[in-house]
């Protein structure tokens, strides 16, 4: 017997040493992700049976957000594993939800409270929150406390006391539906997983050079020419559906329309794009910059963006501004009309001044919106231009964490708020557990997503207050409906914990991985395609593809 025990221990140690971590069957039980601000577990667990559990929404029983929450968790997420649900002779277990503020008619606004208190005893669970958004986060934490006890073959919940709130107000995912069209259903699945990671912003990079899937009612020629096909578009109803779905999960939807570059797909608007030329002076067929000479273009942009603000209710609007320099030579420097225009304006040969001219016009358009919006720009607008002092700078540059921190330091030193994506470019494919390990031989080298902290720079407290949070980006060149889910998750979960949890309590990925593994298995059991994240391991209940349709022949 002692020999068998010794062999077992030696095998476990060998597996741990070989893969650089603990044994593959070690994960947390009832671990909460992201890690709460304060969490104190009780010493006992409570058995849960589906026929003895209920939820009391109190005076908010008519709130659609809380009703949707109750339906999702009571009927799906609290009991997700493919096992027979037992009835029992246990006492009733009631989840009581108390929310102070009224049920909001619209999506969450920037800075809305997501704070909550959660207490789970052997007899009940009590949620207290200022807003419905806090109640949503509390309910997700409660669902993480539920686990399936293999030995007793029953669901159990851990007793606990939690106080929690997010570290940053902006915690999101960026999806790209231009390079590859993403179906509404696939987008909704990502929104569901986002809510399960307590993320609250979907940055929707709707259009780019490759295609224009946004349906404009005022300017139908845009998607008429720019979409891949008439099937590859989002109707106004599609967009409203996504926004409504996100709202029920406490998620804002921020659209991006990149200007003045990345605009080849806008070619349906006659005269909007600058003529571009190759080295021989011959016109190319890939114009990709807005024509700043045409005054009518600014009238068009104003009217188009007014429609966008009517479609998307969020108070932020992303207007791009990146990589203009990639097209300047072909589209501005080699264009005789543009050079003449620059001379007339006194710009000489300085294309940066022409770029400034464009953005000055764009700033004035944003100021006149009937529905006020705060603009977000990629960081080139800071690097090359004089940014609007009311704008937010979106950081995407930097090949190492140190380079990223220097970017954040420089921009916040000018009293400009920032959102950081450079830490989390998830479209880069790296072999290994890149959420926690440095994967060499890849570009950029800023893997170890869990360790990138947007305030870990040498700056003042006032500068660090200007860091609004971060958005993990999944660019679409090699990402579509078939792989976006596994490519995003659970790697984006590392960013979710970094942006929600206290920095001082989340210093070591080695301490986090057992909870991340439990999170992955929980999401797999809920029916999502979540890729392995910690080398060889397993889930008690593995992912199952829906059965293939039988032939009707």
Automatic annotation (TrEMBL):
This is Beta-hexosaminidase. The active site is at 323 (proton donor). Pfam families: Glyco_hydro_20 (PF00728), Glycohydro_20b2 (PF14845). InterPro entries: Beta_hexosaminidase_sua/sub, GH, Glyco_hydro_20_cat, Hex-like_dom2, HEX_eukaryotic_N. Responsible for the degradation of GM2 gangliosides, and a variety of other molecules containing terminal N-acetyl hexosamines. Degrades chitotriose. Coiled coil: none annotated. Residues 88-143 form the Beta-hexosaminidase eukaryotic type N-terminal domain. The lineage of its organism: Eukaryota, Metazoa, Ecdysozoa, Nematoda, Chromadorea. One of its GO terms (cellular component) is membrane. It comes from Caenorhabditis japonica. One of its GO terms (molecular function) is beta-N-acetylhexosaminidase activity. It catalyses: Hydrolysis of terminal non-reducing N-acetyl-D-hexosamine residues in N-acetyl-beta-D-hexosaminides. GO terms for biological process: carbohydrate metabolic process; ganglioside catabolic process; glycosaminoglycan metabolic process. Its EC number is 3.2.1.52. Residues 168-502 form the Glycoside hydrolase family 20 catalytic domain. Keywords: Disulfide bond, Glycoprotein, Glycosidase, Hydrolase, Signal. SUPFAM superfamilies: (Trans)glycosidases, beta-N-acetylhexosaminidase-like domain. Belongs to the glycosyl hydrolase 20 family. Residues 1-16 form the signal peptide. The keyword Signal applies. Disulfide bonds join 63-103, 276-331, 521-539. The keyword Hydrolase applies.
């Amino acid at each position: 017997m002692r020999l068998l025990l010794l062999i077992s221990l030696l095998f476990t140690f060998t597996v741990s040493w070989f893969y650089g971590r603990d044994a593959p069957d070690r994960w947390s039980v009832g671990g909460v992700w992201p890690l709460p601000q304060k969490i104190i577990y009780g010493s006992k667990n409570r058995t849960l049976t589906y026929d003895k559990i209920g939820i009391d929404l109190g005076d908010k029983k008519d709130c659609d957000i809380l009703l949707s929450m109750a339906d999702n968790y009571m009927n799906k997420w609290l009991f997700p594993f493919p096992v027979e649900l037992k009835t029992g002779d246990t006492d009733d277990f009631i989840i009581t939800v108390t929310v102070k503020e009224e049920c909001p008619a619209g999506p969450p606004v920037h800075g809305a409270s997501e704070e909550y208190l959660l207490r789970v005893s052997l007899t009940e669970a009590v949620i207290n929150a200022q807003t419905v958004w806090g109640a949503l986060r509390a309910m997700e934490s409660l669902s993480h406390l539920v686990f399936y006890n293999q030995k007793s073959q029953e669901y159990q919940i851990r007793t606990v006391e939690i106080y929690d709130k997010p570290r940053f107000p902006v915690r999101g995912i960026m999806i790209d539906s231009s390079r590859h069209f993403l179906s509404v259903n696939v987008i909704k699945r990502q929104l569901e997983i986002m809510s399960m990671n307590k993320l609250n912003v979907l940055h929707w990079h709707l259009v780019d050079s490759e295609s224009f899937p946004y349906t404009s009612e005022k300017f139908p020629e845009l998607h008429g020419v720019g979409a891949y096909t008439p099937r590859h578009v989002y109707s106004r109803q599609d967009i409203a559906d996504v926004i409504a779905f996100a709202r029920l999960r406490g998620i804002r939807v921020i659209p991006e329309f990149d200007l003045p570059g990345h605009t080849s797909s806008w070619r349906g608007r006659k005269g909007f794009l600058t003529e571009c030329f190759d080295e021989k002076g011959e016109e190319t067929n890939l114009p990709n910059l807005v024509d700043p000479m045409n005054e009518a273009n600014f009238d068009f942009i104003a009217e188009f963006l007014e429609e966008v603000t009517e479609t998307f209710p969020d108070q932020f609007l992303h207007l791009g501004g990146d990589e203009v320099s990639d097209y300047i030579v072909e589209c501005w420097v080699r264009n005789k009309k543009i050079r003449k225009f620059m001379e007339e304006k006194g710009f000489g040969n300085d294309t940066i001044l022409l770029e400034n001219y464009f953005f000055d016009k764009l700033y004035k358009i944003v100021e006149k919106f009937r529905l006020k919006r705060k603009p977000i720009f990629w960081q080139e607008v800071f690097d090359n231009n004089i940014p609007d002092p009311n704008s937010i700078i979106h950081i995407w540059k930097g090949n190492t964490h140190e380079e990223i921190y220097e970017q954040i330091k420089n921009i916040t030193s000018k009293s400009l708020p920032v959102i950081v994506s450079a830490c989390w470019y998830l479209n880069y494919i790296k072999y290994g557990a890149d959420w926690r390990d440095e994967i060499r031989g890849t570009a950029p080298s800023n893997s170890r997503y869990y360790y990138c902290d947007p305030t870990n720079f040498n700056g003042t407290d006032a500068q660090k207050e200007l860091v609004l949070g971060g958005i993990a980006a999944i660019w679409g060149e090699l990402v579509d409906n078939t792989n976006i889910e596994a490519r995003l998750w659970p790697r984006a979960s590392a960013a979710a914990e970094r942006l929600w949890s206290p920095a001082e309590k989340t210093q070591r990925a080695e301490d986090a991985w057992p909870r991340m593994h439990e999170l992955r298995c929980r999401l797999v059991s809920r029916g999502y395609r979540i890729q392995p994240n910690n080398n060889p391991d397993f889930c008690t209940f593995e992912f199952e593809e829906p059965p293939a349709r039988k032939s009707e022949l």
